[in-house]
């Protein structure tokens, strides 16, 4: 967008078009549109004639109270702040900034003096994936802010301090934060930085059983129906068909589908090999004919020239050749479900992960062992594969026990008035 466009309405229009172009979820676009309306109303209330950085930062200071991301902000304030920064990216004609950088990018307490050693240890010894390391950094930043505000030293904390830190967090966040803090304090102790192992003061979260949720699955016939719903005569159809095949035939995650490149394919050995984005665990698949042909068809007759060093890319004019997003893959899979004749798909999950679950489910139906399924799905832990025990109905039926005949007068008279002296004869 040319920076000469300065009207707030023009900037917002270009911004919302960019969100659609980048395959943002409809719900997210709706939330950001609401933020845009609030910003535009403030603009009109203050009789501002143009959109510029000075006015945008003034909005942040007056309405939000800050121009920086802070844990103290409400979710609505964070969303407004994010929208302002994205609008500024559009105004400056810069690369689209879809996140708000925090005001504190480094640790300010004495924890910052040792944290780089901790990250190095996690990288070398624990071999944690980059995404996991980023999560550890974010949690450490929040913990550092907590220590700084209260004037605590990281080596002089108690159980009550840890509980205060996670008091306002959700159940899942409390578990995650405590796990990271335990890891940090175990490292500090093993490195001789703290005298004792303070991780022992971090209490375990009480276990609350919410019941298990069955994975969403589709039958092999429904998967065929889904694949047939794609119009493969167009370049977009060739790409979308390939995405569906990789998810359905290999159970690949969206993050891996978007990252696959020619370097991961050994055409002579007919193999696809790569390290999974989520776990960094290496995995290898046989290059089956349907997938191999779909890749060749897309590369020869569908994929735009140039762009990123990946196979599957965007086709829109503004971002042609760029790596597709995970949310974009979700939208493509959802569109295929809409075009299919699968019954009740709207009542079930219908993203790429549902095809991953279906891949495991259909392997089970063919009698494939759990170890083989775990290998095929790239699970780093066998416990993860056991989730699919819940949907192996045929084998579960074989484990069922026959209900014995009941001769008790009490059970044979359920619903009737039976005296105590009769019920236990």
UniProtKB/TrEMBL annotation:
| A Pfam family it matches | Phage_integrase
Presence of the UniProt keyword Membrane in the record: no
Q: Which residues form the Core-binding (CB) domain?
A: 6-92, 109-189
At the top level, the lineage of the source is Bacteria
Keywords for the protein's UniProt record, in alphabetical order:
DNA integration, DNA recombination, DNA-binding
InterPro entries in the record: CB, DNA_brk_join_enz, Integrase-like_cat_sf, Integrase_catalytic, Integrase_recombinase_N, Tyrosine_recombinase_XerCD
Q: Name one GO molecular function term.
A: DNA binding
The protein's name in its UniProt record: Integrase
The record lists the organism as: Dyadobacter frigoris
Traced from the root, the source organism's taxonomic lineage reads: Bacteria, Pseudomonadati, Bacteroidota, Cytophagia, Cytophagales
């Amino acid at each position: 967008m040319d920076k000469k466009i300065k009207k707030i309405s023009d900037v917002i229009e270009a911004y919302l078009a960019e969100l659609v172009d980048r395959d943002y979820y409809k719900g997210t676009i709706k939330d950001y549109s609401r933020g845009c309306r609030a910003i535009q109303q403030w603009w009109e209330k203050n009789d501002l004639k143009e959109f510029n950085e000075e006015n945008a930062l003034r909005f942040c200071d007056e309405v939000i109270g800050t121009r920086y991301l802070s844990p103290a902000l409400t979710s609505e304030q964070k969303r407004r702040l994010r929208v302002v920064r994205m609008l500024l990216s559009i105004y400056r004609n810069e690369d689209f900034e879809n996140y708000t950088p925090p005001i504190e990018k480094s640790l300010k307490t004495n924890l910052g003096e040792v944290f780089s050693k901790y990250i190095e240890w996690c990288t070398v010894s624990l071999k944690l994936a980059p995404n996991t390391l980023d999560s550890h950094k974010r949690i450490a930043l929040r913990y550092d802010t907590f220590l700084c505000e209260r004037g605590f030293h990281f080596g002089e904390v108690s159980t009550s301090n840890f509980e205060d830190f996670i008091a306002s967090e959700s159940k899942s966040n409390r578990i995650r934060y405590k796990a990271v803090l335990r890891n940090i304090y175990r490292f500090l102790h093993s490195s001789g930085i703290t005298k004792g192992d303070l991780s022992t003061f971090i209490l375990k979260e009480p276990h609350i059983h919410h019941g298990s949720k069955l994975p969403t699955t589709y039958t092999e016939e429904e998967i065929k129906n889904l694949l047939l719903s794609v119009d493969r005569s167009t370049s977009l159809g060739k790409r979308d068909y390939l995405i569906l095949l990789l998810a359905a035939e290999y159970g690949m995650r969206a993050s891996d589908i978007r990252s696959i490149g020619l370097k991961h394919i050994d055409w002579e050995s007919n193999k696809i090999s790569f390290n999974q984005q989520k776990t960094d665990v290496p995995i290898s698949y046989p290059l089956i004919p349907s997938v191999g042909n779909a890749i060749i068809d897309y590369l020869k007759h569908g994929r735009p020239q140039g762009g990123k060093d990946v196979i599957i890319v965007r086709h829109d004019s503004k971002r042609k050749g760029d790596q597709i997003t995970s949310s974009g893959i979700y939208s493509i899979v959802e569109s295929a479900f809409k075009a299919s004749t699968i019954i009740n798909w709207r009542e079930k999950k219908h993203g790429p992960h549902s095809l991953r679950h279906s891949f495991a489910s259909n392997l089970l139906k063919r009698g494939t062992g759990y170890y083989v399924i775990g290998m095929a799905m790239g699970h780093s832990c066998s416990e993860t594969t056991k989730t699919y025990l819940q949907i192996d109905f045929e084998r579960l039926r074989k484990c069922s026990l026959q209900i014995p005949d009941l001769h008790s007068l009490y059970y044979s008279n359920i619903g009737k008035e039976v005296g105590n002296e009769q019920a236990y004869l």
